Amino acid sequence: MTNEYIQQVxxxxxxxxxxxxxxxxxxxxxxxxxEINMQVLQFLYEDAGLAFQFLTDITAVHYPxxxxxxxCVVYHIHNLVANKRIRIRASxxxxxxxxxxxxxxxxxxxxxxxxxxxxxxxxxxxxPNLVRILNVDEMNYFPMRKEFPMEDPTxxxxxxxxxxx
Amino acid sequence: MGxxxxxxxxxxxxxxxxxxSGEGFMATKMDQLVGLGxxxxxxxxxxxxxxxxxxxxxxxxxxxxLGRFGAERMGFTPRQCDVLLVAGTISKKLAPVLRQVYxxxxxxxxxxxxxxxxxxxxxxxxYSVLQGIDQVIPVDxxxxxxxxxxxxxxxxxxxxxxLVRAESTRRRNHPRxxxxxxxxxxx
Lengths: 165, 187
Description:
The complex is a heterodimer.
Chain A: H1 3-14, E1 18-24, E2 27-32, H2 37-46, E3 54-62, E4 71-79, E5 84-92, E6 98-100, H3 109-120, E7 123-125
Parallel strand pairs in A: 2-5, 6-7
Antiparallel strand pairs in A: 1-2, 3-4, 4-5
Chain B: E1 19-22, E2 25-28, H1 30-39, E3 44-48, H2 51-60, E4 83-87, H3 95-104, E5 110-114, H4 115-120, E6 141-143, H5 150-166, H6 175-183
Parallel strand pairs in B: 3-4, 4-5, 5-6
Antiparallel strand pairs in B: 1-2
């Protein structure tokens, strides 16, 4: 299974809704529109020639400079027979970070989507239990978004002058 | 030039409590007698989460042997223990657990924050880490270091012993102690 073959099959099926095919850091990757994320994953799962049936990871990246597509949801899926892994990106706006859940196709997406919600606030529509998984329940922000400082805001003993800031 | 580690010339002798003594008897205050006894039979509760816990294992081992100071017997239930030794990073999610452990300890109880993380959050100045356990429970002795050497932990225990000897038997009735507990929202 070559990258060109995957690109050809997907382009024939979805047209302009998938774009940006490239190989970076040894993984073939492309973009898709967030509205059709489940159609793409379902197609990659069921197509006999592709058969990407193992979900390796779901995460997100925050790009504060990209207008209306600040949050980039990233799927890593794996074909265990051909030992081939690909990366799919879907960008959603920060104001309304809605995307369909992958739990309907992969049960393992449950905790991964909870983690992505926990740290980035991506709203996975249709998730059975979209609550925080790692952070404390009382936390009222999404710590991995860029607008929140890395350092703990509750700390009072740190004097900026002593740290050269 | 001497050796980097020399034998201790500042020997600390156990002091006899103040009182009136004669041949074959001694009269002293009950507080001091109880304090003396308590200070040499502290039962530690190790709450070890990371590398400071490894140093604490060394402290309990035969090389350093915390048992020499009467803190031989570890209790792994808070209900039996006198000193809570918090060794390691406490995340915000673990803070309620630590507080629950503290609440389960019976009076009199003391707390030692071993290492930079337990004392102040240390290098983990992050959204997920509690910036010092004194945000949730009162702390008696802070041991600096990242991690502290076993000598440091022993020194912390000796400081707790000083506190135990100096405090009244019924510390919990003292108004300042009550005020401290109320500031942490502990009944």
